[in-house]
Amino acid sequence: MEKLKFIKEFLKNWRVVGSVTPSSRFLMNKMIVPVNFERAKIIVELGPGLGGLTKKLLTRMNQESKLLVFEINPDFCRELEKINDARLQIFNTSALGLTDYLKGEKVDYVLSGLPLTNFDDEARSTLLQTVKNVLRPAAIYIQFQYSLGAYKELQSIFNRVSIKFTLLNIPPAFVYQCYD
Ligand SMILES: C[S@@+](CC[C@H](N)C(=O)[O-])C[C@H]1O[C@@H](n2cnc3c(N)ncnc32)[C@H](O)[C@@H]1O
Hints:
By secondary structure, this protein is of the alpha/beta class. It has helices spanning 2-12, 14-17, 25-32, 52-60, 74-80, 98-102, 121-134, 151-157, and strands spanning 42-46, 66-70, 88-91, 107-112, 135-145, 160-166, 173-179. The longest helix is centred in the last third of the chain and has 14 residues, at 121-134.
């Protein structure tokens, strides 16, 4: 059922939704490997879609942590609203405006499923710079993609970028871990 909802949104706007199906549990598990849930006070998720990763994060986070999610698609946001958890804040707005909602707070982890290669150059550059600016020292930006198209740009912005890969997703995906 979830998959059908996702496909429907993909058919309405493939460029923004960016994939035909939600991420697999294998990909989500790879995304959270570097997250130290004991230490994390503020986690941001960009492009949560139907919230598979959102729910996983909430399961692992401690009770004092906050999870702020930014999803541009109102239908996906309606689904996210069904998650009943006081630690979760849902913003139905573009991730590009992230800073306006953080009220000066810095973030421990940014996890993102945004389709970076579908953004125009200016928007992608603004987004990556915005993410960099909201990270605390020693924070990590974790981004999955289906290609290596954004690798050079990520390397030009972050001090260190490592790449993981999983075949167990449709399509197979790269996971970037970006450190300042
Ligand atoms: C590839 S899907 C990933 C969905 C989900 N994270 C997953 O892994 O199944 C990309 C998501 O990013 C959202 N999105 C695209 N552009 C966005 C933007 N500028 N701001 C916030 N969300 C955006 C889409 O609506 C979609 O939910």
